[in-house]
Amino acid sequence: xxxxxxxxxxxxxxxxxxxNCYPSNxxxxxxxxxxxxxxxxxxxxxxxxxxxxSSAYNLTVTTTAQAFTLTATPTFTDDKCGxxxxxxxxxxxxxxxxxxxxxWSR
Length: 106
Fold this sequence. Notes:
This protein has helices at residues 2-19, 35-41, 100-105, and strands spanning 57-64, 67-74, 84-87, 92-94. The chain is an alpha+beta fold. It has a four-stranded antiparallel sheet. A hairpin with a 4-residue loop joins strand 3 and strand 4. The longest helix has 18 residues, at 2-19. The radius of gyration is 14 Å and the shape is globular.
């Protein structure tokens, strides 16, 4: 999940550097009106593995022209870390019971 989030964030930043906006629902920013469209605009799969069926995480993104939040949701039960999040400012989140450090440093 973390590696896929970091790769997706890099692709979002690359898109921003070329377009002065993140993929979002405007003509200048790729007409990406959904999570799937925004991920497609930056050539990132919505799943962490080679296929959706074999993936450990599903990836979604919410965007505006000037911000994004990526979320990797496990396809398995993960009470320790749960869903992991990363935004354009580099802020990392988790929904599980363990500490931020535990979830992001292992």
